[in-house]
Amino acid sequence: MPALTISERAAARVRDILAKRGRPSAGVRLSTRNAGCSGMMYTLDYVDEPEAGDELVEDKGVRLYIDSASLLHLIGTEMDFEEDKFSTGFVFRNPNEKGRCGCGESFHI
Fold it and tell me: Is residue 52 part of a domain?
């Protein structure tokens, strides 16, 4: 079982973002960092060169790298992409989360 799953909508969005970048990329890095009012936030960045210790998740034509410090926080997470009338963005359904802040931007484990 992979550390993380990615929906078809999220994979399509990542492929689109990488295609528009204008230069080759090894994929995208998903990590968590200390921030926000609840304690932690998800971050996505381009990966030009994978780092030692990165966990590679390949799914639906996307290479997603998870840094080793974030891996335990993300096991079992589903990455999705949602668009509605008021917001557009990646959504993470993480079974390890114990709660989120009121605005939904940060979470705690």
Answer: yes
Distance CA 60, CA 96 (A): 24
Per-residue pLDDT at 99: 65
- pLDDT (average), residues 81-104: 78
- The answer to whether residue 103 is domain-embedded is no
Tell me if 9 is assigned to some domain. Answer: yes
Consecutive H or E run containing 33: strand 27-35
Structure tokens at 86: 């008021």
Tokens of 81: 């992409």
Torsion region of 28: left, alpha or beta (phi above 0 gives left; psi -120 to 50 gives alpha): beta
Task: Give the chain's domain count.
Answer: 1
Q: Does 75 map to a domain?
A: yes
Model pLDDT for residues 57-87, shown as the tens digit of each residue: 999 999 999 998 888 888 899 999 999 888 8
Read off the pTM: 0.83
Q: Tell me the residue range of the domain where 63 lies.
A: 4-97
